[in-house]
Amino acid sequence: MLLKNLRFLYNKNGNFLRVINRSILVQFSTDGKNNIDFSQIPIEKIRNFSIIAHVDHGKSTLADRLLEHTGAVVPNSGHNQILDKLQVERERGITVKAQTASLLYTYRNETYLLNLIDTPGHVDFSNEVARSLSACQGVILLVDSNDGVQAQTVANFYLAFGNDLVIVPVLNKIDLKNANPDRVCRQLESLFDINPNEVLKVSAKLGIGIDEMLEAIVTRLPPPNVNRDAPFRALLFDSSYDKYRGVLSLISVNDGSLKIGDTIQSCHTQSTYEIKSISLLTPNEKPVNTITAGQIGLIGCNMRTSKEAHIGDTIHLASESVDALPGFQPSRPMVFAGIYPFDQSQHVHLRSAIEKLVLNDSAVSVDIDSSPALGQGWRLGFLGLLHLEVFSQRLQQEYEAEPIITAPSVIYKVKLKRTKQTIKDGTEEILINNPAVWPEVYKIEECFEPMVIGTIITPDKYLGAVMALCMERRGLQKNAVNIDNDRVMLQYDLPLCEIVVDFHDTLKTITSGFASFDYEDSGYQSSNLVKMSILLNGVCVEELSTIVHLSKAQTMAKKLTLKLKEIIPRQMIHIAIQASIGGKVLARQDIKAYRKDVTQKLYGGDVTRRKKLLAQQAAGKKKMRSVANISLPRETFIDVLKK
């Protein structure tokens, strides 16, 4: 009977890996037959933790192995990236949305509840990491044994360290032939003062070392500091939208317990709701009647709009007042872009899609905007360029919307000269993310642009090219540290506007893909910014204006005028394309008019007849230029404004 319950797992080469007890798989499966009462698990048997790492270091694969070893899913079921549920995540092979799974694990005949949160690795989704850490007491710091410590590894370590979380260092991909665990351990000791003897070595792909890591989670991480006898209090740290149930809120219960039918209240909005459903994610939804302190669960209570589900809010029973829990620092958008419907008849559909998607991604800020060329739309704020691309891709895939995305820009700060009007209105300092509302030069006292601290880890043979790229992007070096004999970590002060579009791609190109890049907000710095206007036959086209640094104005002017010459169609009149700052023209391109041969019908006679016809044509062209408007098709604006 014992042998019947054992399942032997092998890798592709037929080598024996591990044995899993079938009875455990049945007992802890999530097919609805699980009869274990999660609410009865003692607090000291609960562990809340996240997996944090640089992108492509194997977080999702490790999460898959943890699900298999704890019996949450059947091994070798043919499904990979189980917690990556979005289509965009599977297509791109990255994690975009942090996902939670409640797992049961038996250690020394004691059942433990492990609440796992799988987080993204890209810098653009660092808000998902920060939000997830607010519900954890420890983290798994995952590092690739082949690539070693990367830029986002450094950022994630200090994010967890700043939250006073217990860090369990784990080296992944030890099965690769180029893996060098000893070198990576030295890097961890050099950068983070981590004892090499405490570093675990695993292969998430083959399942090697997973049992040791589960034991370390139980023995090294502390249980949550909660009180089940106090009045109910929970932190709302994530939300999603379901078309049948409305807004679903993911909560981390700090005190007391909650059951279906209770009436809760929001500390932020003071609104009250009746609990309609409570679920645990195992990783599929498992309906339960009660959720208690120390657990992480999903509640449905008929919330309908994104304004009601405030991320970082504290919820409590309406009958009892409590103090709000310390939340987390809200994310601040770094990159802004305009989103417009391809046709104004699609405006309502696109608005509904954006509202629902913002529920799943609270880091996006939304403001109403309009453009004479593109019509009514929205100005959305994102954490980075990849964040923008993923958001627009989800709009198309999940809601079948076809948006027009304008070129990304950043938010500038302008200090106006003190006048009676600015003092009265309190507008001495204004924030601007749209060139159309840039003040006149005579009103500006000083301009400021957002800065970031960029961390670059690169092999030393590419050091010269990386430094040249940073200098070209107006970077100022702050620090340089040798990680080991082969790699260097550089820190630069960089203007945000110089890195949001193509800095990462250029860095990967010049370093053959070996360098990694991460950045964090560094406030504002005084800068010589100007508004570059585009004139067509002397008439300013506001939608094509842009904000640039004075040192790069000449180069940008030439690029933009050449691009406009290529995409603006020829017309019956001559078109002069000019890029100017104030009254000074920096670059000019000309589009010649269509010319009709008015002398074609002449077959002879005096030359004065030819001159007369040409003079009449010239007079007509001159009159047309004075009264005619240049007709720019909508597609021209789209080609210029979109990414």
From TrEMBL:
It is found in: Mitochondrion inner membrane. It catalyses: GTP + H2O = GDP + phosphate + H(+). InterPro entries: EF-4, EFG_III/V, EFG_V-like, G_TR_CS, LepA_C_sf, LepA_CTD, LepA_IV, P-loop_NTPase. It is a peripheral membrane protein. One of its GO terms (molecular function) is mitochondrial ribosome binding. SUPFAM superfamilies: EF-G C-terminal domain-like (SSF54980), P-loop containing nucleoside triphosphate hydrolases (SSF52540), Translation proteins (SSF50447). Its EC number is 3.6.5.n1. The keyword Mitochondrion applies. Its main location: mitochondrion. The keyword Protein biosynthesis applies. Residues 44-225 form the Tr-type G domain. HAMAP family: LepA (MF_00071). Promotes mitochondrial protein synthesis. May act as a fidelity factor of the translation reaction, by catalyzing a one-codon backward translocation of tRNAs on improperly translocated ribosomes. Binds to mitochondrial ribosomes in a GTP-dependent manner. Belongs to the GTP-binding elongation factor family. LepA subfamily. This is Translation factor GUF1 homolog, mitochondrial. It comes from Rhynchophorus ferrugineus.
